[in-house]
Design goal:
324 residues; alpha/beta; 5-stranded mixed sheet; 40% helix; globular; binds zinc ion
Length: 324
C-alpha cells in the first residue's frame, strides 16, 4: 500500500467539467475534460460528473478508494462549511444543492466544496504566479469577472462562504442589469460580455467597423474575440471599446487596492489576453484612483495556471480541509 496522498479534484463549470487526480504537491496525474449538460438539469449534470471522475481514475489507473477525498469547485455562491451551493447563474435550476453530501454518497469519500474562482485563487497562490505573496487578489476576466482573496496566506471566504465576488461590486449604480439581480456590477462593465454588448450597440447605431467582419458579418456573433481581432487590425471602434473596458477594469482594481492593500494582483481569464491595449488603461486608471502608496505597493502579474487553476485549487482546498 503506497502512502502517497491523492485527491480527486473537480472543476464544475457552466460549460465544462474537469476532473483530475492531483497529488499533495499539486501535480496533476490524470485529467478528464467533458462538456457540462447544464440545460438538462441537476441530475444529468451529477451523472456527467460521475462519468468524468471515472475516466480520470481510469487514466490514472487508480480506484476512487485510493483518493484521500474529493474536492469540487463550483460556480456561484456557496458555503464551503456546509457544502451547499446556494444558486448558480451557470447551472439553471440549481438551488441550495447539498453537493458534498451527494458526492459523498456517490463516491464514498469525504467531499469538500469551494467556489470555482476561489479555488483558482488558491491554486495561483500556491502553485502559480501568486507564489510567495502573503496577501493577494486573484481576478479572472472572461464572460464575467470572478475572483478570490488571499489574506495572510489563507483563502478568505467570509461569514457564510460567499466572499470574494469582486465581479459584483457596484461600479455604476445605474449601469446595465447583472445576472445577480443588481445593476452596474463590475462584470457588466469590464467583462468580455460587456465588450461584445458595447460593440453590438455601436454597430447597430451605424458605426463602421471591422468588428462585424470578424464576426462573419453576423451581429449576434459579435464577441470579445471579434473586437480583439478588429483592434489588432487597427479598427478605431475596437480600440476605443477596449480602452473603455480597460478604464472600467481599472476602476474596480482601484476599489480592490484601497480595500485590501494587496501585495499582488493576479489577473487571468481569456479577456486579459488582450494584453497591453486593455491593461495599460486599466493600470493607469487604478493608479489615478487608488491611494498612491497602496498602488505603488502592488504588483500585477498574469495568471500562470490557465484552465487547470480551478481543478487544482479544488484539490488543494480538499487537502487543506483534510488537514483541518
Ligand atoms: Zn452582479
Amino acid at each position: 500500500m503506497e502512502d502517497k496522498k491523492r485527491v480527486m479534484g473537480i472543476d464544475l463549470g457552466g460549460t465544462k467539467i474537469l476532473s483530475a487526480v492531483v497529488d499533495e504537491t499539486g501535480k496533476l496525474l490524470a485529467r478528464d475534460h467533458s462538456v457540462t449538460p447544464a440545460e438538462k438539469g441537476e441530475k444529468v449534470v451529477l451523472e456527467a460528473i460521475e462519468g468524468s471522475v471515472g475516466r480520470a481514475l481510469e487514466q490514472a489507473e487508480m480506484d476512487i478508494s485510493e483518493m484521500l477525498a474529493v474536492g469540487i469547485g463550483a460556480p456561484g455562491p456557496s458555503n464551503p462549511d456546509t457544502g451547499i451551493l446556494f444558486t448558480s447563474p451557470n447551472l439553471p435550476g440549481w438551488k441550495d444543492v447539498h453537493i458534498t453530501d451527494i458526492l459523498e454518497d456517490r463516491f464514498g469519500k469525504q467531499a469538500f466544496l469551494v467556489n470555482d474562482a476561489n479555488a483558482a485563487a488558491l491554486a495561483e497562490h500556491r502553485l502559480g504566479s501568486g507564489r510567495g505573496a502573503r496577501d493577494l487578489i486573484y481576478i479572472t476576466v472572461s464572460t464575467g469577472i470572478g475572483g478570490g482573496v488571499i489574506i495572510d496566506n489563507r483563502l478568505y471566504t467570509g461569514a457564510i462562504g460567499t466572499a470574494g465576488e469582486p465581479g459584483h461590486m457596484t461600479i455604476n449604480d445605474k449601469g446595465p442589469p447583472c445576472n445577480c439581480g443588481n445593476q452596474g456590477c463590475w462584470e457588466t462593465l469590464a467583462s468580455g460580455t460587456a465588450l461584445a454588448r458595447e460593440a453590438r450597440k455601436h454597430i447597430e447605431g451605424g458605426r463602421k467597423s471591422l468588428i462585424l467582419e470578424k464576426a462573419s458579418g453576423d451581429l449576434e456573433k459579435v464577441s470579445a474575440e471579434a473586437v480583439q481581432k478588429a483592434a489588432e487590425d487597427g479598427d478605431e471602434l475596437a480600440k476605443e471599446l477596449i480602452a473603455e473596458l480597460g478604464y472600467y477594469l481599472g476602476v474596480g482594481l482601484a476599489n480592490l487596492i484601497n480595500l485590501f492593500n494587496p501585495e499582488r494582483i493576479v489577473i487571468g481569464g481569456g479577456v486579459s489576453n488582450i494584453g497591453d491595449r486593455l491593461l495599460e488603461p486599466a493600470f493607469e486608471t487604478a493608479r489615478k484612483r487608488a491611494y498612491t502608496v497602496a498602488f505603488d505597493a502592488v504588483r500585477f502579474v498574469a495568471a500562470e495556471l490557465g484552465r487547470n487553476s480551478g481543478v487544482l485549487g479544488a484539490a488543494l482546498y480538499a487537502f487543506d480541509a483534510m488537514k483541518g
